[in-house]
Here is the input.
Amino acid sequence: MNVAIVGCGLIGRKRAASLEGRCRLVACADRVWERAEALAAPHGAAAEEDWQRVVGRADVDVVIVATLHDSLAPVALAAVANGKHVLVEKPAARCPEELAPVAEAAARSGALVRVGYNHRYHPALRKARELVDGGAIGDLMFLRGRYGHGGRVGYDREWRADPSVSGGGELIDQGVHLIDLSRWFLGDFSEVHGVAATYFWNMPVDDNAFLTLKTPAGKVAFLHASCTEWKNLFSVEIYGRTGKLDISGLGGSYGVERIAYYRMLPEMGPPETTIWEYPRADASWALELDEFLEDIRLGRQPSPGLRDAAAVLRIVTSVYSQSSHDHHA
Here is the structure.
């Protein structure tokens, strides 16, 4: 399949690398032409400043949208209106309202839209999914998730700190991954309690968010996303009636990715422990793309798709409205 990439920064480059041996990159667009050219040249692809020209190209089958948050939905909308399948980075929009026209246009054109919640494709989380589905920890009770980094000098002056571009702060940046993973394991949430706060960074968006989410069956996700986490951290703990899964690390500065499976014994006491470690490079981008290509081949609705992205963003919007900050432009 022929692919166009809109947004040629760090994530756009990761996406391009994942195409290797799978798809052909035919066009790249970025508002900084040199960035588009740098990504396009090795592939013999066209480079454009104007993304509109790229999403309308007759030779493009799939558009990957890796722009800043304010452009995700408009680019995805134009691509699906042109009948192109779309892989759009999370959070896919700044608010759920921006996703409705994308879903309508995709339904009209038959284009499929996958949302890039790539953490579902990390090996420790794949293993967790397999263990949960196999009944290893029994019926799920609740989940606890923490995700954080410490920002960097000048972080409060970057695009993420501008609500008109980002739609919010740490909650809409890393927090959405935690919400997506919580929904993946526990299902839809009907009750949302949360606080988005700004403690350290001098910016009009949140640097910490605390959430308690509850499903209709009473299962709870207890989440914290932070960009005052001075030592990078990723931790998701899934509690079942007969055991617990403890997933930590994402590689790199987050530490080696691993999952510990604690199996409760009939007599209780110390559990039987099994640990898997995944020291290899991050293959989540390639695995996610493989699944999208399979979606397209089978004509099946991608998961996570627009419905999932909208559900996550409704939770984000609810927490922002419960907090004193007004994060919306």
Remarks:
- The chain is about 35% helix and 25% strand.
